[in-house]
Each structure stands twice: as C-alpha cells, then as structure tokens.
C-alpha cells in the first residue's frame, strides 16, 4: 500500500512540475536560405534554439503548415519557433523580422 501511494504521489508531483522539465519554444532569429514548397521544407541559417538544445547552424526544417512557406522568401530575415512534431524538427511559426 505504501509503495502505491508513493508512486501516485511521485506521478502527481511530476505532472504538476512538468513544465519545469520541458522548455517551451522561443522565437529565434534566422535567415531563409532555401524554400522547397513541394517537400514542405525550409532551410534556415539560425541562432541557437534553446528548446531543442541546438546551436547556431544552417539546417532544413519541415513546415508545420505549407502556407507559412508563402509568407517568406530566400534572403528574408525572420523570427521563428521550432519544435519536435511527430519526431521531426518542425517550424511551428514564422514571421519576417522587423
């Protein structure tokens, strides 16, 4: 009985403290280097992405919504968020930088 209570208490504590274990996606800066609308992918030279524990680099991302690829073009400075969606690193929001 004691073991079940401790397991339930631990599960509740983890559920309540969940956000402290995961970082939320933060907008970061970047420059669009390529857009592949057919594959629904975008290549971005970007700043570090803290929630993905990723340093500064150029990489290809999947677009969460192919419509967002029409909002930007090659060479645009952008602010975007990225996260893991179904196992793929995905741009979840994008906007031209001001």
Keywords:
98 residues; globular; 5-stranded mixed beta barrel; alpha+beta; OB fold (Dihydrolipoamide Acetyltransferase, E2P); single chain; 2 helices
Give an overview in words:
By secondary structure, this protein is of the alpha+beta class. The protein has one domain (23-96): Copper binding periplasmic protein CusF (OB fold (Dihydrolipoamide Acetyltransferase, E2P)). Helix content is 19%, strand content 41%. It contains two helices and five strands, in the order ααβββββ. It has helices at 2-16, 18-21, and strands at 28-36, 41-46, 57-63, 77-85, 88-96. A five-stranded mixed β-barrel has the order 1-2-3-5-4. It is globular and about 30 Å long. The model is unreliable at 1-21 (pLDDT under 50).
Short description:
The longest helix is centred in the N-terminal third of the chain and has 15 residues, at 2-16. This protein has helices at 2-16, 18-21; strands at 28-36, 41-46, 57-63, 77-85, 88-96.
């Amino acid at each position: 009985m004691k073991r079940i209570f401790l397991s339930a208490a631990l599960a509740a504590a983890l559920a309540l403290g969940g956000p402290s274990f995961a970082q939320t996606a933060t907008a970061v800066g970047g420059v669009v280097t390529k857009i592949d609308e057919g594959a629904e992918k975008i290549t971005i030279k970007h700043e570090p992405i803290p929630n993905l524990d990723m340093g500064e680099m150029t990489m290809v991302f999947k677009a969460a919504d192919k419509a967002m690829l029409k909002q930007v073009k090659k060479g645009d400075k952008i602010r975007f968020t990225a996260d893991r969606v179904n196992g793929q690193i995905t741009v979840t929001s994008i906007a031209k930088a001001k």
